[in-house]
Amino acid sequence: MKDNVWRLVGGGLLLLMLALPVWANGGSQAVGEVKAVDSVKRILTISHGPIPGLNMSAMTMDFYVADPAMLSEVQPGDKIRFEVETDRRGRYVIVDLELE
Ligand SMILES: [Cu+2]
């Protein structure tokens, strides 16, 4: 039982060490498919793959965009590569994106 706990702690530390360089860079890279564009709330709903830098597995979720112009660059069904940062309020914000 104790062994398992230490294995978890070790795994957590390893993940942290892997994630640190990504934090240092500011953003985390991700790929996904645009599901919806909300230009009023400045939100893209994206079905994304795993994002190790954010400790996130694949899921569909909303992202804010840093620049409203990004909203007109994509439409539902587009496959994109993007970079996410966490803002001071803990929201996920796309700071860069491009079509795949
Ligand atoms: Cu997610």
Write the layout of secondary structure elements.
Blueprint: H1 2-25, E1 28-38, E2 43-48, E3 59-65, E4 79-86, E5 92-99
Parallel strand pairs: 3-5
Antiparallel strand pairs: 1-2, 1-4, 2-3, 4-5
The structure holds copper (II) ion.
Provide an overview of this structure:
With 100 residues, the chain is α+β, with helices and mostly antiparallel strands. The protein has a single domain (2-99), classed as OB fold (Dihydrolipoamide Acetyltransferase, E2P). The protein is built from one helix and five strands. The chain has one helix at residues 2-25, and strands at residues 28-38, 43-48, 59-65, 79-86, 92-99. A five-stranded mixed β-barrel has the order 1-2-3-5-4. It starts with a helix and ends with a strand. The mean pLDDT is 88. Copper (II) ion is lined by residues 48, 56, 59, 61.
